[in-house]
C-alpha cells in the first residue's frame, strides 16, 4: 500500500499528515508505528488523518494517533497543522472551519499573518471526565509519584493533563516523573504531564511528557492546560506567551466556562510517498 503524506510541525511538535478524503486509508497500529518511527519510517510525534465529517454541519473529521499507534482525543499543535494542511491541499478555501474530533468540535482559524488560532473549547475540571480517580476538581491536587507527594493541577483539554510548577524547567525531572505520572493508576486513560516555570504574569516556560509519545518539543493542549492552571492559581493573567523548546505559543482564557484560544505557527516541511 502506497500512501502520500505531508510532514509538518507546529513549534517543533511534528506530524505526518494524511489525506483520507481523496485516498482510502485504513492503517493498523503496526503501520502507524512504522510511519512514526524515526529510523525505519517517516518519523513523527503523531499521525494526523483528515477524513470526511460524520456531521453535515462540520467541514472535516480529524483523527489523531500517537507514535505508539494508539488513537487519542485531541492535539493542539496538530489542530493548527490540520488547518494549514487542508488549506494548502485546497480541500477548503475557508479561513475558519469546524472540525470533528473524538473530544468534540474545534474551530481552527487562519490568521492574516499566517499563524493559526484554534478555539480549543473550555477546560474540564470534573475528575470523572478528565478522568482522574479520587480527585476533587480543586485548583491543586496531591499526587504521589517518585516517592514524593506532588502538588499538581489536573484538568482536561479534550485529553487529560497534569501540570506541575517547577523552579527551573531545564532541570525538571521530566524523564523520571513524566512516565511515572503518565501511567499513574489514578489516570485510567493515562495523562500528559506538564512541567511549568512561571516567568512573569504573562509568560511561562514549559516542557511536556506526552501520553504515548514521550517528551515532545511542544504540546498545544499542554500549553493550554498550563495557562489555565496558572490562571486558576492566580500566577498568570491572560494572554500568556508559552515558550516551549520548539517555539512560542500564545494562549488566552477568560475564566471558567470560557473557551481557551491558542495561536501559533504551522509549518509544512516536505511531502512524500511511502510504501507500507
Description:
The protein is α+β, with helices and mostly antiparallel strands. The chain is 16% helix and 38% strand. It contains 4 helices and 18 strands. The strands form 2 sheets. Strands 7, 8, 9, 10, 11, 12, 13, 14, 15, 16 and 17 form an 11-stranded mixed beta sheet that branches. Strands 1, 2, 3, 4, 5, 6 and 18 form a 7-stranded mixed beta sheet that branches. The longest helix is centred in the N-terminal third of the chain and has 13 residues, at 76-88.
Short description:
The protein has 276 residues and is of the alpha+beta class.
User: Topology as H/E string?
Assistant: EEHEEEHEEEEEEHEEEHEEEE
Strand content: 35-45%
Rough outline:
globular
- State the major sheet: 11 strands, mixed
What count of helical segments does DSSP give? Answer: 4
The radius of gyration over CA amounts to 18 Å
Gap from first CA to last CA: 5 Å
Q: For the residues shown, what is the average pLDDT?
A: 96
Number-wise, the strands total 18
Q: Estimate the helix proportion, in percent.
A: 10-25%
- Structural class, from helix and strand content? alpha+beta
Low-confidence stretches: none
Which structural traits does this protein have?
276 residues, alpha+beta, 11-stranded mixed β-sheet, 7-stranded mixed β-sheet
Secondary structure blueprint with pairings:
Layout: E1 2-10, E2 13-19, H1 29-36, E3 46-51, E4 60-66, E5 71-72, H2 76-88, E6 99-100, E7 107-110, E8 116-119, E9 141-145, E10 148-156, E11 160-165, H3 174-182, E12 192-200, E13 203-210, E14 214-216, H4 220-232, E15 240-244, E16 247-252, E17 261-264, E18 267-275
Parallel strand pairs: 2-3, 4-6, 11-12, 13-15
Antiparallel strand pairs: 1-2, 1-18, 3-4, 4-5, 7-8, 8-17, 9-10, 10-11, 12-13, 13-14, 15-16, 16-17
